Amino acid sequence: MQCRWAAGMRHAAVQITSKSKESIWEFIKSLLDAWSGWVVMLLIGLLAGTLAGVIDLAVDWMTDLKEGVCLSAFWYSHEQCCWTSNETTFEDRDKCPLWQKWSELLVNQSEGASAYILNYLMYILWALLFAFLAVSLVRVFAPYACGSGIPEIKTILSGFIIRGYLGKWTLLIKTVTLVLVVSSGLSLGKEGPLVHVACCCGNFFSSLFSKYSKNEGKRREVLSAAAAAGVSVAFGAPIGGVLFSLEEVSYYFPLKTLWRSFFAALVAAFTLRSINPFGNSRLVLFYVEYHTPWYMAELFPFILLGVFGGLWGTLFIRSNIAWCRRRKTTKLGKYPVLEVIVVTAVTAIIAYPNPYTRRSTSELISELFNDCGALESSQLCDYINDPNMTRPVDDIPDRPAGVGVYTAMWQLALALIFKIVITIFTFGMKIPSGLFIPSMAVGAMAGRMVGIGVEQLAYHHHDWIVFRNWCRPGADCVTPGLYAMVGAAACLGGVTRMTVSLVVIMFELTGGLEYIVPLMAAAVTSKWVADAFGKEGIYEAHIHLNGYPFLDVKDEFTHRTLATDVMRPRRGEPPLSVLTQDSMTVEDVETLIKETDYNGFPVVVSRDSERLIGFAQRRELILAIKNARQRQEGIVSNSIMYFTEEPPELPANSPHPLKLRRVLNLSPFTVTDHTPMETVVDIFRKLGLRQCLVTRSGRLLGIITKKDVLRHMAQMANQDPESIMFN
């Protein structure tokens, strides 16, 4: 008895121990599941920030490599090389013995026509080499690595799947080629592609957690947060990144995604700040601080810059889309490598003689944004100084422009025309290409010229009624750098139609609350002017050009049509392709899959009743049948497929049936045939649906796809629905 009692106690103790172990493991699993979202955000932020830092460092070095090399360490950029030199003086801080131009290194000449021509040729050769490597890598290894990536990200977040677009190869090739194309001197930026890079990071890390890899809705939430991290490291603007994802990219943005986006953007910005790629403890090259307030009379030129930004946006979108359409419909599109080489050669040949187009676009924007302090050596700061002036460094009064300023003005005018034209042909080529930086450069050049004009007017005509109340002689009235910043915001807003996120990004760049009103005025004006010529921004225009099925959340649908007016099949069309729950063979289903290209098939009880029980995805059906043929014995072409819990009654000599209930979606989204299309459109937008089934009293009537909705919207807008092409 004692032995039995002891054995029973031991058995009970083992059961209690195993249950406690199970409960601990379940607790850990639940904890991991709860924290997996934050872990994914942490990993995205760390990798996105690291990649952005590496890209910035590599671009800095390779851009300078076109002009010369550091003798002490060839991997140093010009600035880093001169930092380490003990012979560098403040007056000649851009010149040091350790840094040699190619003419000095190859023929031992630094001045003269032969040295200039040799440096010119080396600049062009390096640019061509970088561009050729970039387009070749994209074409061979990752065709999806081309372009900005933002139109495709918007389309993916709307519920459309582009397989391979966020893959590992795309991430690797886009990171490498982004360095090459920016270093080549082409009129493009890295900021848009960094959003694509960050989303590739998000896709990679979400695939490691089943919670996200098996749920497309949750995966899209991760990608929304990754887009915020991408903008955060692109501009050093974490809050602007979150607002960009909310305003410009995301379809569905719940509060949970807002918090996680903020966390990912914070980690990414912190990681980039730790790397400190620019050596100035800032996240971007063109961080500025101004010391002079703006005045109410300056709102007029700020609004004029907004008008210019809207007109530039309209001109760019129409010209670029026309050129891209020509590229797609003519033989030009068959020679992407040749196109890149030709555009790079033209860019390098025209850019080199002008100092404002020779340097990298980020450095150009940095110089245009800068306020002229006492230590500035730029041509833009070549003013005639009063020898009796004794003022603090940060409060230099307005002065008459010197020869350098007038020279810089006509060079900037030529650079502005060149940038406007060449950017139209550059954006959309088969290389990574962002639009933020070229657009900001166009606006910054126009703004700086307007700012210098207003400054000189205020100096020479301070007794005019416009200037009399706020600009006294000897005062620091006008800051031309502020006009450059406002112009940059206006042009970027005109092209992308961004408003709130744009103002916050520019505010985070400057760190000054004081300049929010000028930025808001310019951003709103540019949007109004651009919207007067067309509602589409550049990304929406490229979405339509590429034929992606995208429902813009900004478009309103106010027509009184019903679901029955849009659903297929219509009168005269063949009946809907469906699967029955227990009467079709494997061969029947395989034949149906071969003869159609539908994304999936409704499953009904029988063809007579048409009572809906679920929806089966095409891809899952193919995989399930393939696996069953390989791993299950007795599965042949005549095997009955069933989607019910219990197998159907079959004759004794029938082959083994195939159960596919696990691939069946038992709760597909359905609407009745009398549901207003306004409601259906809202459902497609907010849930990112690809299709929706139409029923009446549980009986299947038809199906509405996103493409059907887009064609119907085009028809309601008096457009030819058949002209809406899909890729």
Word description of this protein:
One of its GO terms (cellular component) is synaptic vesicle. The protein starts with a helix and ends in an 11-residue tail after the last helix. Helix 5 packs across helix 22. It folds into 3 domains: 34-66 and 142-275, Clc chloride channel, CATH 1.10.3080.10; 296-385 and 394-546, Clc chloride channel (Orthogonal Bundle); 563-717, CBS-domain. It has 727 residues and is α/β, with parallel strands linked by helices. It has 27 helices and 12 strands. The protein has helices at residues 2-65, 78-83, 102-107, 113-141, 150-157, 168-183, 191-206, 210-213, 216-235, 238-249, 255-275, 299-329, 336-351, 355-358, 361-369, 403-426, 436-460, 465-468, 480-496, 500-510, 516-533, 538-546, 563-566, 586-595, 618-631, 677-687, 706-716, and strands spanning 68-70, 99-101, 579-580, 584-585, 600-604, 612-617, 640-642, 658-659, 664-665, 670-672, 691-696, 699-705.
What is the strand and helix layout of this fold?
Elements: H1 2-65, E1 68-70, H2 78-83, E2 99-101, H3 102-107, H4 113-141, H5 150-157, H6 168-183, H7 191-206, H8 210-213, H9 216-235, H10 238-249, H11 255-275, H12 299-329, H13 336-351, H14 355-358, H15 361-369, H16 403-426, H17 436-460, H18 465-468, H19 480-496, H20 500-510, H21 516-533, H22 538-546, H23 563-566, E3 579-580, E4 584-585, H24 586-595, E5 600-604, E6 612-617, H25 618-631, E7 640-642, E8 658-659, E9 664-665, E10 670-672, H26 677-687, E11 691-696, E12 699-705, H27 706-716
Helix pairs in contact: 1-6, 1-7, 1-9, 1-11, 4-6, 4-13, 5-22, 6-7, 7-9, 9-10, 9-11, 10-11, 10-20, 12-16, 12-17, 12-19, 12-21, 12-22, 13-16, 15-17, 16-17, 17-19, 19-21, 20-21
